[in-house]
């Protein structure tokens, strides 16, 4: 399922979907937190929704936050890598998360490459806690399921771009891989007392017909024995929604 979702999600370069039989396109907005009353919280905990689009699980002095990242934010974080392709026939910019300043001539817009979420864990409550980013699952209300990318998925996707003995292509492959390794949430790392740990979790582009998702973090470790085996875990979930706007043609799409 992981491979199928990744392959299908990346096969379409356009950031829009033609609704079968309806003759119009769906233009998704950005994901925003659902109302705090719709967020699921365990007994003795609370959920907070912040102005910047972050949803935070709070249990005393432990906080786990999830925030959907927009392409504009990611481009601002990597400005040089988002604007280093300008010549005819040149590759798209070397940022791994977006298409940077490349614009699709058919739509007049830059398509979305991936779906990226930022996770932040602040632990001032327990001796050590642990989040495994590879266990995270995104479930949509229309039945789709998305799994996070690991190191192999990143290699498999970006290694196909360098062709023959294209030196520039291989340099950009290495640059993209390095950026992902530095920015991702660590796969196997404790967050000890008094520490903050943050990073990105990458998914295949969430399909344009998805308007509501549940971001699930299962088996978040709260307490561990002397063998570093979890003795207390909790399942967390964060709900996000976005507007799905329908347009009739590409010219109307470019105006949105």
What does this entry look like structurally?
The protein is an alpha+beta fold. 18% of the residues lie in helices and 34% in strands. A five-stranded antiparallel β-sheet has the order 3-14-13-9-10. Strands 4-5-6-7-12 form a five-stranded antiparallel β-sheet. A hairpin with a 6-residue loop joins strand 1 and strand 2. The longest helix has 17 residues, at 167-183. The model is unreliable at 1-21 (pLDDT under 50).
Helix content: 10-25%
- The number of helices is 5
Major sheet description: 5 strands, antiparallel
Based on helices, strands and strand pairing, what is the structural class? Answer: alpha+beta
Mean pLDDT: 85
Question: Low-confidence parts lasting 5 or more residues at pLDDT below 50?
Answer: 1-21
Sequence of secondary-structure elements: HEEEEEEHEEEEHHEEEEEH
How many angstroms separate the termini? 33 Å
Radius of gyration: 19 Å
Write down how many β-strands occur, each being a DSSP E stretch of 2 or more residues: 15
Number of domains: 1
Give the strand line-up of the largest sheet: 3-14-13-9-10
Shape: globular
**How big a fraction of the residues is strand?**
25-35%
